[in-house]
Design brief:
Elements lengths: L5 E5 L7 H15 L5 H20 L5 H18 L12 H13 L8 H9 L5 E6 L3 H10 L8 E4 H4 L6 H11 L7 E5 L2 H11 L3 E4 L16 E3 L2 H10 L1
Helix pairs in contact: 1-2, 1-4, 2-3, 3-4, 4-6, 5-10, 8-9
């Protein structure tokens, strides 16, 4: 039996392939808006989107600002390049964002091996599985369901519903209260993000595992407590079962 009772698994880039969904949905969005050069624009959009999420984690912006800014910058850039075929047909920035939400909510792409990994974890006596995410409620629930991960995982904690974003300690306090176990030592946080998952585990005193499929440790890793690192699902499984 594992010493961990509750495994908190990050959703994007730990269980779901966020980048695959982001790219396919972005390209579909551009086509529906009659905006050309989709690949070039995706390479412009994706780093902006990532940087804005990092600002959110640091509480420097809120989600409405994130959603407004990413597509405002994108549409301004597309207009400057004259990639917008029908400028009069472009809806408001937030309408564009909502179109993107709808596409993303239907695009839950599991990372290869995720279902088998979760199936094996389910068989470990004495543990339960939860997913944690800073994603938008509509997209997170939709992607979770369309990926069929909801057949494997007991609970999904979404920052919009919790009221706080990872790495805020209040996010993790909410999770512990909802699960009904206030001992942080009984939890293991598994995720790919230093700034949300690992920082959050540090903030609340939970053990943590950094999931890095590339094997490359992100900048700043030496500033945080990282109890375990894993390259693949087999490594995570072994960490849980050998604890």
């Amino acid at each position: 039996m594992s010493k961990y009772k509750h495994i908190l698994l990050d959703l994007d880039e730990t269980l779901l392939d966020f980048h695959a969904s982001e790219k396919s949905c972005f390209i579909a969005l551009m086509k529906s808006l009659e905006i050309t050069n989709e690949q070039e624009l995706y390479e412009f959009f994706s780093p902006i989107n990532k940087s804005l999420w990092k600002l959110l984690e640091r509480k420097l912006i809120d989600k409405p600002t994130l959603f407004q800014t990413r597509f405002s910058k994108l549409l301004d850039h597309a207009a400057s390049k004259e990639y917008i075929t029908n400028p009069s047909g472009i809806p408001s920035v937030m309408e564009v964002n909502n179109m993107y939400f709808k596409l993303m909510s239907q695009s839950g792409i599991p990372i290869e091996g995720a279902h088998d990994f979760l199936h094996r974890l389910q068989s470990v006596d004495g543990i339960d599985l939860s997913a944690i995410t800073n994603g938008n409620t509509i997209t997170a629930k939709g992607r979770f369901a369309s990926s069929n991960l909801n057949s494997r995982i007991k609970r999904l904690y979404i920052s919009d519903e919790v009221g706080f974003d990872k790495p805020d300690i209040r996010f993790f306090d909410y999770v512990m209260k909802d699960i009904g176990d206030s001992n942080p030592d009984n939890y293991l946080v598994v995720g790919d993000s230093l700034t949300s998952d690992i920082q959050g585990a540090n903030n609340c005193g939970m053990p943590c595992c950094l999931f890095s499929r590339t094997g490359i440790l992100p900048d700043g890793y030496e500033l945080l407590r990282i109890d375990q690192t894993a390259l693949d699902y087999e490594s995570i499984y072994n960490i849980v079962t050998n604890a």
